[in-house]
Amino acid sequence: MIWLLLACQTSEGPAPGPEVFSPPTAHIGHDWLFSPQRINRIDIEIPDNSWAILAAQRRFSYPRDKAMATATLDGEDAGWVGVRLRGGLGSFEQIDGKPKLELDFNAFTGERFHGLESISLNNRSGYCTGMQENLVYAAYDQAGLVTSRTGHAQVFVNGQDYGLYVVVETQDDRWLRRNFNDPSGNYYDGKYHLSEFWVHWVDFDAGKDNWFDLEEGQDVDFDDIGAVSQAIQESQDSMSPALWSLVDWPQLLALMRVEMWTGNADSYGHGRNNYRVYFEPGRPMVMAPWDTDAGLVDVSEDTDGGSGDMALRSDPENALAQVCLADPDCLAMWVQAGEQVDADLSDGSLLTLAEGYQELLEEGIVGDPRRACSQNAWATQTERLLAYLESRTGER
Amino acid sequence: MLLLLASVAHAALSSDYPGATQRPWAIGLSSGAGFRVLEPRSIPSGLAPRLDLLQLEVRYSLEPCTWSIPPQRLDLQLNTGRFATTLTGTTSARLPVTAYLTWLEPFWRRHSVSISPGMSAELGRDLVVVDQDLRRRPNASLAIAGRIGLEKSRFWWPASTTGLYLQGQIGTALSLDPNHRFLEREMSVALQYSVAFGFPPPPKDAR
After folding, report:
1. What is the pTM of this model?
2. Which of A175, A273, A276, B50 is the most exposed place for a label (fewest CB within 10 A)?
3. Which residues of chain B approach chain A closer than 8 Å at the C-beta?
4. ipTM
5. Chain B closest CA to A61's CA: distance in Å?
């Protein structure tokens, strides 16, 4: 028995799954990495000392340490990179499971990979279709909002098959340059704080402005966040002129409408989580989504929306929405944003994208050695997802 | 305070007092909940909950002490619940240990008021990264602690004492992680409930 236990501890991990990665392609720009038609092969080699660092990380350990590794993406050597375990309460897994990872290309060498600072490798925690995060990010894009591009990869760590991952474009300074005329503004993360076992949700609230994390830009002691929080406080009965001008309301309301359309409850609208805000110099604040893995999930009858409906029907609850929905003019914009988002997302493009993913991903999902999804689970969830998208296609 | 605890323990363990033949030990569990006040650097609001789950409690009768106002017990709390959660959930395993000297004043029938000044220390080891190598560094916190409560004793088998306490502590925590070195003030308050089995010193009016 002892020998059996020892043998289990020193095993090489699960048996590898099928090789589902696409043939190598030309690496022009980085569209190949975020293509809905490809599964790229990503190899990560983690030396022993780095493995020990990553193996020590736990769900409630913050900040997470980066470890040195080498990476090869679709056969192209990225050199020494930083590897960090991502994920919080929901999606964290340890390095010997199916961890959510960040590959930080310039962490140790300062060298970027095709201009990218880093990418996220998401472990598809909690769903079997393999495409939901991709579709939700695409939905924001289709509604004309700033968002991340996504792709898929089969990841190998020290030669072991870690299965299929969702590749997500990190929202860094290059991403700001791609999406805004002036990338020199301040970019903040509004993700929840975890202090040991206690969660703090982050929203605009005077005196709590420093709960945001500055991702890009200059430290201005959260004055830009504070101006929005202050304007919310001054908007008691109707929205103050300052708040009208500080926030890009059409953009924000469309973002919350996409969250509802995709049922993305772990977002700013309904969860005050997984969002970033950008203050472009001379322009109002713009919000961007992040970590969309709660969207388009297979909801049960007792959740918002009911059986067969992946949308959220209740109004969002956050500091900005509360002010907006109490103001008649903003409320009218909210209704209008809903109609526009319905029109934008109901043209069948998401359904077409999902059908493409269905064909691309089936073998990799079912054969993933580290995220057990039976053929039946994959088929059922995918069928429901496609049925939902189909039901909303052509809806006005 | 540490010297005081040490001298009391020494006196209790070295003398052949009557309590030794009466099995002066009691052992039990306590749990509680409250809140911690931290520096905003640790948590944005400065407030966090405090959960004391599965605290092992060991009590030792100090009946033979010959001081003018002798404490009647030495109480030791080991917060095994926090140790387990930090060990499995974080890279900083911590075992909070609190020692009290307890005075008991009869209150009503088998009820006594307990007053317990003491010290609390949190000992542990952090896993930290230095030059891409994982190393272990000690961490520690030290605090003045105290609790006041109401205890009810039961003298027939199994002899036991239940108690409801208000516990508080104030002190500092030290991290020796070279990447995140800090010295942090911390204060916390909790309501605790305990059940201990054994032969704790009875209230004065029951002797």
Report:
1. 0.86
2. B50
3. 38, 40, 42-45, 48-49, 51, 85-86, 88-92, 127, 129, 132-134, 179-180
4. 0.72
5. 4
